[in-house]
Amino acid sequence: MTRGPSDFRSDTVTKPTAAMRRAMAEAAVGDDVFGEDPTVAELEQETARLFHREASLFVPTGCMGNQIAARLHARPGEEAVVEAAAHMFDWELAGLAALSGIQVRPLASARGGLDPDLVRATLRPAGGFRPRCGLLLLENTHNFHGGAVVPVEHLARLHAVARERGARVHLDGARLWNAAVASGTPLPAYGAVADSLMVCLSKGLGAPVGSMLVGDAAFVAQAREARKLLGGGMRQVGVLAAAGLVALRTMRGRLADDHARARRLARAVAAVPRASLPTGDPDTNIVIVRVEGVDAARVSAALKARGVLALPAGADRVRFVTHLDVDDEDVARASAAFPDAVADAARA
Ligand SMILES: *Cc1c(COP(=O)(O)O)cnc(C)c1O
After folding, report:
1. Has this prediction a pTM greater than 0.90?
2. Whole-number pLDDT of residue 1
3. Domain 254-347 has CATH 2.130.10.10
4. Distance of alpha carbon 187 from alpha carbon 176, whole angstroms
5. Tens of pLDDT, residues 26-59
6. Which residues of 132-156 are buried (b: 16+ CB within 10 A; e: fewer)?
7. CA-to-CA separations, 260 to 11, 35, 283, 307, 336, in angstroms, rounded
8. How far apart are CA 105 and CA 65, in angstroms?
9. Angle at the Cα of 64 from the Cα atoms of 284 and 167, rounded to 5 degrees
10. Intervals of the chain under pLDDT 70
């Protein structure tokens, strides 16, 4: 059998599994805008229970979940503290400003975990000329710090600082499942360090669509209204929630395989001349490799010519993401193609 390209562009490229497709075909459904879809209700209750929180809401995308949360936690003209390479700041257009009138206060960090003292100094009440800064946006794992795990103890310190300053906390946990598996952290521990959190079903867990916004019951009731406002009220969406339930119940444990493959791939690519790992050895399923003095877009093109897909993540960085639909053979193929691709790109 001939293989298609080895696709390391993102863990969003996974196709739904046979079990997901079966569950989708057989799902009990109803009009979810009327609150009548039993499969959605089951998914929402089960997700909330996993984090020991009161409620959760099925949203079409992680972006929508994050944007709804920020909108409910801050008023127009207020500020939110966010890590400088965070998805909510850098990769959701200017959603915070455009949708909710929130000004962003980016703070740099070494591996995605903000300095609690700096956060304490930045969160402040309104006064004189200064805007109120009352929202802290966290991300775990941190995508553009190479899938770094921010330890839950660190998140707890930041949460305590926010409490002390009367600020709210939202956790962008698109890959929180990966963080939990890699660090052995129980999910309720994450539920305890944020007012709200968002988790994706459509990344490492392999569901075709969907994310969950988790919080207390009053917050989720407001979030349901905000979802409608943004055009995200969905009808017989139990067909998608059914795949989400399979993802939640059966796909979390296998993330450890993705992490092991990422470590193996990282060791192989880091041994290539000019290459290094600017974000260190991968904690989870993302490998960012720097190719000194070589155009990352050319490396990406040279990889593609060898049947390996990986996206540039900056002028001299290439990002590989492992997931359900890449196996040991794909890792071997990428490891073998990388030295030649770098050599080709350096010559071009
Ligand atoms: C992918 C991602 C999101 C957004 O998810 P979508 O479903 O693509 O909107 C949010 N945060 C992080 C860190 C992500 O990687």
Report:
1. yes
2. 54
3. no
4. 9
5. 999 999 999 999 999 999 999 999 999 999 999 9
6. bbbbbbbbbbbbbbbbbbbebebbe
7. 15, 41, 9, 22, 18
8. 20
9. 80
10. 1-2
> Is 83 a pocket residue for ligand 1 (Cβ < 6 Å)?
no
Tell me how crowded residue 284 is: count the other CB atoms within 10 A of its CB: 29
User: So where are the chain's domains?
Assistant: 18-250, 254-347
Distance 103 CA to ligand 1 centre (A): 20
- Given ligand 1 and candidates 92, 141, 200, which is best to mutate, with the most ligand atoms within 8 Å of its CB? 200
Q: Whose CA is nearest to atom 3 of ligand 1?
A: 62
Q: Find out whether the beta carbon of 139 lies less than 6 Å from any atom of ligand 1.
A: yes
Does ligand 1 have an atom closer than 6 angstroms to the CB of 112? no
- pLDDT tens-place string over residues 103-144: 999 999 989 999 999 999 999 888 889 999 999 999 999 999
Give the CATH number of domain 18-250: 3.40.640.10
Question: Which tens digits make up the pLDDT trace of 312-333?
Answer: 999 999 999 999 999 999 999 9
Output the CA 125–ligand 1 centroid distance in Å.
30
